[in-house]
Amino acid sequence: MKATAILFLLFIVTSCTDKKPYPYKISDFRPELQAHLSKLALEKSLPVNDTIARNFIEKESSKEELLQLMRSESPLLRVVAYRAIVNRDEKDYFKILLGHLNDTTKVTWWYYEDACGDFMVTDLLIRKAEDRNKLSRSEKNILVDSVLTKHPYLETSNWMISEIDPNEKYYSLIKKRCKTKTDRCGAQYGSCYALSKFKKKEDRQFLKKKFEVLEDPCQYWVFKAIENNPDEAYFSILEKYLNQTIKKKKQQTYDDLDYYCMAVAAYKNAKSLNLLEQLASKATYPDPWYFKDNQGAVFEALHKYRSPIYDSLYNKLRPQMSDYIIHSLKRPDRGERKTW
Question: Of these four, 80, 112, 119, 198, which has the most CB atoms within 10 Å of its CB?
Protein backbone atom coordinates (compact mmCIF):
# COMPACT_ATOMS: atom_id res chain seq x y z
CA MET A 1 0.00 0.00 0.00
CA LYS A 2 2.77 2.39 0.92
CA ALA A 3 4.54 1.73 -2.41
CA THR A 4 1.29 2.28 -4.28
CA ALA A 5 0.73 5.59 -2.52
CA ILE A 6 4.25 6.76 -3.33
CA LEU A 7 3.82 5.85 -6.99
CA PHE A 8 0.53 7.76 -7.06
CA LEU A 9 2.19 10.87 -5.59
CA LEU A 10 5.02 10.63 -8.09
CA PHE A 11 2.46 10.46 -10.88
CA ILE A 12 0.73 13.58 -9.61
CA VAL A 13 4.02 15.51 -9.30
CA THR A 14 5.20 14.38 -12.72
CA SER A 15 1.88 15.31 -14.29
CA CYS A 16 2.04 18.80 -12.77
CA THR A 17 5.66 19.26 -13.82
CA ASP A 18 5.05 18.16 -17.39
CA LYS A 19 1.99 20.37 -17.79
CA LYS A 20 2.81 23.16 -20.20
CA PRO A 21 2.06 26.65 -18.86
CA TYR A 22 1.26 27.89 -22.39
CA PRO A 23 -0.38 24.97 -24.17
CA TYR A 24 -2.69 26.73 -26.61
CA LYS A 25 -1.86 27.02 -30.29
CA ILE A 26 -3.66 29.23 -32.77
CA SER A 27 -5.25 26.12 -34.25
CA ASP A 28 -7.01 25.51 -30.92
CA PHE A 29 -9.24 28.55 -31.40
CA ARG A 30 -12.36 28.86 -33.54
CA PRO A 31 -11.82 29.62 -37.25
CA GLU A 32 -13.16 33.19 -37.00
CA LEU A 33 -10.36 34.05 -34.57
CA GLN A 34 -7.57 32.05 -36.16
CA ALA A 35 -7.04 34.41 -39.11
CA HIS A 36 -6.68 37.44 -36.85
CA LEU A 37 -4.51 35.62 -34.33
CA SER A 38 -2.21 34.47 -37.11
CA LYS A 39 -1.73 38.05 -38.27
CA LEU A 40 -0.99 39.28 -34.76
CA ALA A 41 1.40 36.43 -34.04
CA LEU A 42 3.54 37.53 -37.00
CA GLU A 43 4.13 40.93 -35.39
CA LYS A 44 7.60 41.38 -33.92
CA SER A 45 6.76 44.06 -31.40
CA LEU A 46 4.05 45.87 -29.42
CA PRO A 47 1.96 47.85 -30.03
CA VAL A 48 0.87 45.81 -33.05
CA ASN A 49 0.27 47.58 -36.32
CA ASP A 50 -2.77 45.49 -37.27
CA THR A 51 -5.41 47.39 -35.31
CA ILE A 52 -8.23 45.66 -37.22
CA ALA A 53 -7.16 42.26 -35.92
CA ARG A 54 -6.55 43.63 -32.42
CA ASN A 55 -9.95 45.33 -32.26
CA PHE A 56 -11.66 42.20 -33.54
CA ILE A 57 -10.12 40.12 -30.77
CA GLU A 58 -11.06 42.69 -28.13
CA LYS A 59 -14.67 42.99 -29.30
CA GLU A 60 -15.50 39.53 -30.61
CA SER A 61 -13.65 37.19 -28.24
CA SER A 62 -15.42 35.76 -25.25
CA LYS A 63 -13.83 36.11 -21.84
CA GLU A 64 -13.06 32.39 -21.84
CA GLU A 65 -11.26 32.77 -25.16
CA LEU A 66 -9.21 35.67 -23.84
CA LEU A 67 -8.24 33.64 -20.78
CA GLN A 68 -7.17 30.82 -23.07
CA LEU A 69 -5.26 33.30 -25.18
CA MET A 70 -3.37 34.37 -22.06
CA ARG A 71 -2.00 30.83 -22.05
CA SER A 72 -1.13 30.94 -25.74
CA GLU A 73 2.30 29.79 -26.87
CA SER A 74 2.76 33.27 -28.37
CA PRO A 75 3.91 35.80 -25.70
CA LEU A 76 2.72 38.69 -27.85
CA LEU A 77 -0.78 37.24 -27.97
CA ARG A 78 -0.72 36.81 -24.19
CA VAL A 79 -0.10 40.53 -23.79
CA VAL A 80 -2.77 41.44 -26.36
CA ALA A 81 -5.28 39.21 -24.58
CA TYR A 82 -4.70 40.84 -21.19
CA ARG A 83 -4.89 44.31 -22.68
CA ALA A 84 -8.27 43.36 -24.10
CA ILE A 85 -9.42 42.10 -20.69
CA VAL A 86 -8.45 45.40 -19.04
CA ASN A 87 -9.91 47.51 -21.85
CA ARG A 88 -13.19 45.67 -21.48
CA ASP A 89 -13.24 46.47 -17.76
CA GLU A 90 -13.52 42.86 -16.72
CA LYS A 91 -14.07 43.02 -12.96
CA ASP A 92 -11.53 40.34 -12.10
CA TYR A 93 -8.66 41.74 -14.16
CA PHE A 94 -6.56 42.16 -11.01
CA LYS A 95 -7.13 38.57 -9.92
CA ILE A 96 -6.19 37.44 -13.43
CA LEU A 97 -2.99 39.48 -13.23
CA LEU A 98 -1.96 37.81 -9.97
CA GLY A 99 -2.17 34.46 -11.73
CA HIS A 100 0.34 35.55 -14.38
CA LEU A 101 3.17 37.11 -12.39
CA ASN A 102 5.72 34.51 -13.46
CA ASP A 103 5.64 35.10 -17.23
CA THR A 104 9.28 35.99 -17.90
CA THR A 105 9.22 35.70 -21.71
CA LYS A 106 10.50 38.87 -23.39
CA VAL A 107 8.47 40.97 -25.82
CA THR A 108 9.66 44.06 -27.68
CA TRP A 109 7.55 47.11 -26.83
CA TRP A 110 7.68 50.48 -28.57
CA TYR A 111 6.86 52.72 -25.60
CA TYR A 112 7.54 55.80 -27.74
CA GLU A 113 7.48 56.18 -31.51
CA ASP A 114 11.27 56.26 -31.58
CA ALA A 115 12.13 54.16 -28.52
CA CYS A 116 11.66 50.50 -27.72
CA GLY A 117 12.97 47.81 -25.40
CA ASP A 118 12.54 44.18 -24.48
CA PHE A 119 10.25 43.60 -21.50
CA MET A 120 9.01 40.54 -19.67
CA VAL A 121 5.36 39.78 -20.39
CA THR A 122 4.46 40.20 -16.71
CA ASP A 123 5.97 43.69 -16.64
CA LEU A 124 3.78 44.65 -19.58
CA LEU A 125 0.70 43.19 -17.90
CA ILE A 126 1.39 45.18 -14.73
CA ARG A 127 1.89 48.36 -16.74
CA LYS A 128 -1.45 47.83 -18.48
CA ALA A 129 -3.29 47.23 -15.20
CA GLU A 130 -1.71 50.35 -13.68
CA ASP A 131 -2.31 52.42 -16.81
CA ARG A 132 -6.06 52.42 -16.21
CA ASN A 133 -5.44 53.86 -12.74
CA LYS A 134 -8.12 51.63 -11.25
CA LEU A 135 -6.07 49.62 -8.81
CA SER A 136 -7.18 50.24 -5.23
CA ARG A 137 -4.71 50.94 -2.45
CA SER A 138 -5.13 47.41 -1.10
CA GLU A 139 -4.60 45.90 -4.57
CA LYS A 140 -1.43 47.93 -5.00
CA ASN A 141 -0.17 46.73 -1.63
CA ILE A 142 -0.85 43.12 -2.59
CA LEU A 143 0.87 43.55 -5.94
CA VAL A 144 3.91 45.27 -4.46
CA ASP A 145 4.31 42.56 -1.86
CA SER A 146 3.89 39.78 -4.44
CA VAL A 147 6.47 41.31 -6.76
CA LEU A 148 9.08 42.21 -4.12
CA THR A 149 8.85 38.95 -2.18
CA LYS A 150 8.18 36.42 -4.94
CA HIS A 151 9.16 38.01 -8.25
CA PRO A 152 11.87 40.61 -7.51
CA TYR A 153 13.49 39.92 -10.91
CA LEU A 154 10.72 41.89 -12.64
CA GLU A 155 11.71 45.33 -13.86
CA THR A 156 8.59 46.71 -12.22
CA SER A 157 10.24 45.98 -8.87
CA ASN A 158 12.68 48.86 -9.44
CA TRP A 159 9.76 51.22 -10.03
CA MET A 160 8.02 50.01 -6.89
CA ILE A 161 11.14 50.16 -4.71
CA SER A 162 11.79 53.80 -5.58
CA GLU A 163 8.23 54.87 -4.71
CA ILE A 164 7.03 52.90 -1.70
CA ASP A 165 7.34 54.11 1.87
CA PRO A 166 10.10 52.47 3.92
CA ASN A 167 9.10 48.99 5.07
CA GLU A 168 11.52 46.85 7.04
CA LYS A 169 10.20 43.79 5.21
CA TYR A 170 11.90 44.98 2.03
CA TYR A 171 14.99 46.57 3.58
CA SER A 172 17.41 43.72 2.72
CA LEU A 173 16.25 43.58 -0.91
CA ILE A 174 16.59 47.35 -1.28
CA LYS A 175 20.09 47.45 0.19
CA LYS A 176 21.16 44.57 -2.04
CA ARG A 177 19.95 46.54 -5.06
CA CYS A 178 21.99 49.53 -3.89
CA LYS A 179 25.12 47.40 -4.01
CA THR A 180 24.40 46.00 -7.48
CA LYS A 181 25.62 47.97 -10.47
CA THR A 182 23.79 47.33 -13.74
CA ASP A 183 23.87 48.80 -17.23
CA ARG A 184 20.95 51.02 -16.18
CA CYS A 185 22.00 53.36 -13.40
CA GLY A 186 18.42 54.14 -12.39
CA ALA A 187 17.93 50.70 -10.87
CA GLN A 188 20.86 51.13 -8.48
CA TYR A 189 20.44 54.81 -7.66
CA GLY A 190 16.65 54.52 -7.38
CA SER A 191 17.25 51.83 -4.76
CA CYS A 192 19.74 54.09 -2.95
CA TYR A 193 17.02 56.73 -2.84
CA ALA A 194 14.67 54.14 -1.35
CA LEU A 195 17.30 53.13 1.20
CA SER A 196 17.76 56.75 2.26
CA LYS A 197 14.11 56.87 3.32
CA PHE A 198 14.90 54.51 6.22
CA LYS A 199 17.28 57.18 7.59
CA LYS A 200 19.43 54.61 9.35
CA LYS A 201 22.73 55.91 10.71
CA GLU A 202 24.50 52.68 9.75
CA ASP A 203 23.68 53.39 6.07
CA ARG A 204 25.07 56.94 6.08
CA GLN A 205 28.65 56.18 4.99
CA PHE A 206 27.52 53.43 2.64
CA LEU A 207 25.20 55.84 0.84
CA LYS A 208 27.76 58.63 0.84
CA LYS A 209 30.21 56.43 -1.08
CA LYS A 210 27.50 55.66 -3.62
CA PHE A 211 26.44 59.29 -3.92
CA GLU A 212 30.00 60.50 -4.48
CA VAL A 213 30.04 58.75 -7.86
CA LEU A 214 27.38 60.72 -9.73
CA GLU A 215 26.41 58.88 -12.88
CA ASP A 216 24.63 60.82 -15.61
CA PRO A 217 21.65 60.86 -16.11
CA CYS A 218 20.85 59.36 -12.69
CA GLN A 219 22.24 62.03 -10.39
CA TYR A 220 18.72 63.31 -9.71
CA TRP A 221 18.13 60.18 -7.59
CA VAL A 222 21.05 61.27 -5.41
CA PHE A 223 19.64 64.77 -5.06
CA LYS A 224 16.19 63.37 -4.19
CA ALA A 225 17.80 61.17 -1.54
CA ILE A 226 19.72 64.09 -0.03
CA GLU A 227 16.60 66.26 -0.06
CA ASN A 228 14.74 63.49 1.74
CA ASN A 229 17.47 63.19 4.37
CA PRO A 230 19.67 66.32 4.41
CA ASP A 231 22.42 64.91 6.56
CA GLU A 232 25.58 66.98 7.01
CA ALA A 233 27.60 64.02 5.69
CA TYR A 234 26.17 64.59 2.21
CA PHE A 235 26.67 68.34 1.88
CA SER A 236 30.18 68.03 0.43
CA ILE A 237 28.63 66.12 -2.50
CA LEU A 238 26.47 69.13 -3.31
CA GLU A 239 29.44 71.51 -3.05
CA LYS A 240 31.51 69.30 -5.33
CA TYR A 241 28.72 69.17 -7.91
CA LEU A 242 28.48 72.95 -7.95
CA ASN A 243 32.21 73.49 -8.40
CA GLN A 244 33.02 70.64 -10.78
CA THR A 245 29.86 70.32 -12.86
CA ILE A 246 27.60 73.37 -12.73
CA LYS A 247 30.45 75.87 -12.96
CA LYS A 248 32.43 73.97 -15.58
CA LYS A 249 30.10 72.03 -17.88
CA LYS A 250 27.58 73.22 -20.41
CA GLN A 251 24.03 72.70 -19.23
CA GLN A 252 21.98 70.32 -21.41
CA THR A 253 18.38 70.95 -20.35
CA TYR A 254 16.45 73.55 -18.37
CA ASP A 255 15.49 71.13 -15.61
CA ASP A 256 18.97 69.87 -14.76
CA LEU A 257 19.00 71.95 -11.57
CA ASP A 258 15.51 71.30 -10.21
CA TYR A 259 16.35 68.39 -7.94
CA TYR A 260 19.75 69.80 -7.05
CA CYS A 261 18.28 73.10 -5.82
CA MET A 262 15.73 71.27 -3.69
CA ALA A 263 18.47 69.18 -2.09
CA VAL A 264 20.50 72.28 -1.26
CA ALA A 265 17.54 74.25 0.09
CA ALA A 266 16.50 71.39 2.40
CA TYR A 267 19.48 72.17 4.68
CA LYS A 268 18.25 75.65 5.68
CA ASN A 269 21.61 76.90 6.92
CA ALA A 270 24.30 79.43 6.00
CA LYS A 271 26.19 77.00 3.77
CA SER A 272 23.11 76.11 1.75
CA LEU A 273 22.24 79.81 1.41
CA ASN A 274 25.72 80.43 -0.01
CA LEU A 275 25.21 77.76 -2.66
CA LEU A 276 21.74 79.06 -3.55
CA GLU A 277 23.08 82.61 -3.95
CA GLN A 278 25.68 81.30 -6.38
CA LEU A 279 23.01 79.36 -8.27
CA ALA A 280 20.97 82.55 -8.61
CA SER A 281 23.94 84.40 -10.18
CA LYS A 282 24.53 84.38 -13.93
CA ALA A 283 28.30 84.45 -13.31
CA THR A 284 28.10 80.89 -11.99
CA TYR A 285 27.26 79.35 -15.35
CA PRO A 286 29.67 78.90 -18.28
CA ASP A 287 26.66 79.10 -20.60
CA PRO A 288 23.77 81.32 -19.41
CA TRP A 289 21.24 79.90 -21.92
CA TYR A 290 19.05 78.41 -19.15
CA PHE A 291 19.72 81.09 -16.57
CA LYS A 292 16.11 82.29 -16.18
CA ASP A 293 14.98 78.70 -15.70
CA ASN A 294 17.74 78.15 -13.16
CA GLN A 295 16.63 81.20 -11.21
CA GLY A 296 13.15 79.74 -11.24
CA ALA A 297 14.49 76.44 -9.86
CA VAL A 298 16.23 78.31 -7.04
CA PHE A 299 13.08 80.26 -6.22
CA GLU A 300 10.88 77.15 -6.18
CA ALA A 301 13.35 75.47 -3.80
CA LEU A 302 13.37 78.53 -1.53
CA HIS A 303 9.58 78.54 -1.55
CA LYS A 304 9.32 74.87 -0.62
CA TYR A 305 11.84 75.23 2.22
CA ARG A 306 10.87 78.67 3.52
CA SER A 307 13.19 79.78 6.30
CA PRO A 308 14.15 83.15 7.78
CA ILE A 309 17.71 82.61 6.58
CA TYR A 310 16.40 82.54 2.99
CA ASP A 311 14.06 85.55 3.21
CA SER A 312 16.44 88.11 1.66
CA LEU A 313 17.20 85.97 -1.41
CA TYR A 314 13.56 84.92 -1.70
CA ASN A 315 12.33 88.51 -1.72
CA LYS A 316 15.03 89.51 -4.21
CA LEU A 317 14.00 86.80 -6.70
CA ARG A 318 10.23 87.05 -6.24
CA PRO A 319 9.65 90.09 -8.54
CA GLN A 320 11.62 88.40 -11.35
CA MET A 321 9.47 85.26 -11.44
CA SER A 322 7.07 84.65 -14.30
CA ASP A 323 3.39 83.82 -13.86
CA TYR A 324 4.22 80.25 -14.86
CA ILE A 325 6.71 79.88 -12.00
CA ILE A 326 4.29 81.40 -9.50
CA HIS A 327 1.55 79.03 -10.66
CA SER A 328 3.89 76.03 -10.46
CA LEU A 329 4.39 76.67 -6.74
CA LYS A 330 0.95 75.13 -6.20
CA ARG A 331 2.12 71.78 -7.54
CA PRO A 332 3.39 69.55 -4.73
CA ASP A 333 6.66 67.78 -5.51
CA ARG A 334 6.92 69.27 -8.99
CA GLY A 335 3.71 67.58 -10.12
CA GLU A 336 5.22 64.08 -10.01
CA ARG A 337 2.63 61.30 -9.92
CA LYS A 338 3.29 58.53 -7.44
CA THR A 339 1.97 55.13 -8.51
CA TRP A 340 2.86 52.64 -5.81
Answer: 80
